[in-house]
Amino acid sequence: MAFAIEAANSRTKAADLGRPSKMLRTREELDACDVTSESWQEALQRRYKTHQDMKGILNHVEEVDMSIYDQFDMRVTPYLAQLMDRDDPNCPIRKQYMPFQGELNIQPYEVADSLAEDHDMQEGSTVVHRYPNRVLFLVTTNCGTYCRYCTRKRFVSHGVRAVNKQQLERGFRYLESHREIDDCLVSGGDPLLLNDRQLEDILSQIRARAPHIKFLRIGSRLPVQLPTRITPELCAIIERYDVQMVNVHVNHPKELTPLFAERIKMLRKTGTMIGNQSVLLKGVNDDITTLRDLCMGLISCGIRPYYCYSCDVAEGNHAYQLSLDRILSLYRGLRGFISGPAVPTFVVDGTGGLGKMPIIPDYVRELANGEIWATNFEGKVHRMTNLEKTIADQ
Ligand SMILES: *Cc1c(COP(=O)(O)O)cnc(C)c1O
Ligand code: SF4
Q1: Buried b (16+ CB within 10 A) or exposed e, 110-145
Q2: Taking the CB of residue 376, how many other CB atoms lie within 10 A of it?
Q3: In terms of C-beta density within 10 A (0-12 exposed, 13-18 middle, 19 or more buried), how is residue 259 classed?
Q4: Is the model's pTM score more than 0.85?
Q5: Which of 77, 208, 283, 326 is surrounded by the most beta carbons within 10 Å?
Q6: Separation of 100 CA from ligand 2 center, angstroms?
Q7: Is residue 130 lining ligand 1, measured as CB closer than 6 Å?
């Protein structure tokens, strides 16, 4: 099984190096490309690998130092390139994926492993065990397209690094021997970048060796970056191994394309829950209209907005950061204004491995003197005397 993964990794690398001619060099060629007419693997071979590659596709491409790719690779699927605005460098898709010089200006407070995941990796595996009952299992270091603000930059990209067979085996063994774990989140990198056989190998190992796991979930951004990755074959695997939740990562309503919606519908037929996690990013989705459209757009696709993250303090991420005040006001703009199930939990993942903590305005407060004051979604402040009296009566 692990052999298959390594072999496929080296095949991907060979394909990456050997076939640059497959790249669609002009906007006309790109726009004429029907992404549904080829396999997702073929589409991956057409990915753009540097900003230089995109100069025939986009205008006003920022000239960045090639050394940026020593830190963090660039890959852009043709599908995402089609979504990128040709002229506007502030296009929300471009802002997430196009490298910018400021990334290299790493701040003293920025850290490579800001969530201290390496510290919580268990027994030579890539299983991060931080919470009592659940683990994060990182099964690959590659992604379909690299998000410039990625929290796991230290771990992902750079094709040479991979999760090897020993690490995977140690991961399975860890799950097998820790019966307190009842929830396993398979992530990476992007687990759906593995081919169906590799993915099936991993899921079957987990299911066979850790029957105490009640909740198996996959985190992937590939449905957003290349919706054709969702195939009937993939859906059959999700169903066969009873993956109860797939979490995608949509940040902007522009990513909710008809093709995305269609493939999500296919995935929903497996019966798996589909959730979304977004990252709040300055210049991408930090305004209330965008977030309302995003959350309602997600729920209309049948996706439950799950988390909305404050951007992690990873190296080079400062340009995307929002203030806590701004985050709170964005939350206030959702709660009460859009459907309840469309409102995600806002969280910050604490630096140094504190874990996720909700960022929620206090709508209802009890003072030391027993008074209870409430602020409703419209900002009306009201003292809840009836509730005070009920409590005082207890
Ligand atoms: C986010 C995360 C999980 C899953 O957390 P939930 O709140 O249950 O979604 C598990 N382990 C680690 C290390 C995580 O960062
Ligand atoms: S898909 Fe996830 S892991 Fe991959 S680069 Fe984006 S944020 Fe990082």
Answers
A1: bbebbbbbeebbbeebbbbbbeeebbbbbbbbbbbb
A2: 12
A3: middle
A4: yes
A5: 77
A6: 17
A7: yes
